[in-house]
Write a structure and sequence with these properties.
Number of domains: 1
Radius of gyration: 19 Å
Number of strands: 33
CATH topology: Methylamine Dehydrogenase, Chain H
Shape: globular
Number of helices: 1
Distance between the termini: 53 Å
Strand content: over 45%
CATH class: Mainly Beta
CATH superfamily: YVTN repeat-like/Quinoprotein amine dehydrogenase
Structural class: mainly beta
Helix content: under 10%
Length: 358
């Protein structure tokens, strides 16, 4: 079963469980998906490689938005033409979007009745997902909610197919995966033995879970120590970075046969685990974490981070756009009212107050 991941192979295929809509208040007993065996050469858990860290130059940052209560928290970002769209809101209350432009930032008019956790798109088309199966599509803010009580934490657009992942936070702690094909959403997996947090280009990660999509089927790539993985950035089926952890920061790299653990320097790690990761070429890796943790790992293995945190808010996401890197978050673990923080490379000026977009 999937629950045997700590004793089984590093690469195991998971058959589809029953998909399709269920009523919001009906719960099904968990039945673990059947595992299809792989060739014997792929059935041994690979050794975990640990690479030590060395801090290099300082990473200067400025705050573009600091403790602005307008949108609540900011949890995810995506490039939309010349701008960056960032989503968030207030837990259990509402969801909002901030547009980050070359000249500043402003608050979009659209909103939802639940916080939005993530956004992704292609071209001018985007999807954002959040609490209670909420799904928003495009600049018209078309609602495409799915019938689930679960929170959707991640979304990824792949041409005509859209993936959304999440799980039941309050009761079962089980994960689920949704897929949109031919304009219709359906449940692709349910009853997974842990919450699912993010999906990116064929990779899915969650609480002690990691999968790749191979020939339309999920193949397990279990974290070596059952780590909680919050965000994944895929560079292909055989290369990805994932971050997470609870009491300690976790940065893992999959290179086709094993996970490599990259140590994060103490002065760059913040407090607890990591929340966000961004990389395009697999060489420079940006991470986001708690208590202002913002850092960059360079191709030579050295790290850069601020000499002192630019904020003691927590960063939930990091995004690179047009040569600039943005860290986004807020008082994730604080008390209401929740507010947003955005850190950027120096030179923009600020911080700015979020007014309505023109």
């Amino acid at each position: 079963t999937v629950d045997d991941r700590s004793r089984g192979s590093a690469s195991r295929r998971v058959d589809k469980s029953t998909s399709g809509a269920r009523t919001p208040h009906r719960r099904r007993a968990y039945s673990a998906p059947r595992i299809v065996g792989l060739p014997s050469g792929m059935r041994t858990l690979p050794a975990l490689v640990v690479l030590l860290a060395c801090k290099g130059e300082s990473l200067p940052l400025d705050l573009l938005v600091d403790a602005d209560p307008g949108p609540g928290l900011l949890l995810g970002a995506w490039s939309h033409g010349d701008d960056v769209l960032a989503v968030g809101g207030t837990y259990g209350v509402d969801g909002h979007m901030v547009r980050i432009t070359p000249d500043g930032a402003c608050l979009e008019a659209g909103s939802t009745d639940g916080i939005l956790w993530w956004i992704h798109g292609e071209g001018d088309d985007w999807y954002a997902v959040g609490e209670g199966g909420r799904i928003v599509h495009g600049d018209a803010w078309t609602r495409e909610d799915v019938p689930t009580e679960s929170t959707l934490f991640g979304v990824y657009v792949d041409g005509d197919t859209v993936w959304a992942v999440g799980g039941d936070v309050l009761v079962s702690q089980q994960g689920e995966i949704w897929r949109r094909q031919d304009g219709t959403w359906s449940r692709y997996r349910e009853g997974l033995p842990g919450l699912m947090f993010k999906v990116h280009d064929g990779w899915f990660v969650g609480d002690g879970l990691a999968y790749t999509l191979v020939d339309g089927e999920l193949v397990e790539r279990p974290p070596p120590n059952g780590e909680k993985l919050l965000t994944v950035r895929s560079l292909g089926p055989d290369h990805a970075f994932a971050v997470g952890g609870v009491s300690q920061p976790v940065l893992l790299e999959w290179t086709g046969g094993a996970w490599t653990s990259h140590e994060v320097p103490l002065e760059c790690a913040g407090s607890g685990g990591l929340n966000g990761v961004y990389t395009d070429d697999g060489e420079t890796v940006h991470i986001a974490g708690n208590q202002g943790a913002a850092a960059t790992r360079h191709p030579d293995g050295t790290w850069s981070c601020p000499e002192a945190p630019v904020t003691f808010d927590s960063f939930h996401a990091v995004w690179a756009h047009d040569g600039e890197v943005l860290w986004l978050g807020g008082n994730l673990f604080g008390s209401p009212p929740y507010h947003a923080s955005i850190a950027v490379d120096p030179g923009r000026g600020g911080p700015v107050t979020l007014a309505a977009c023109p």
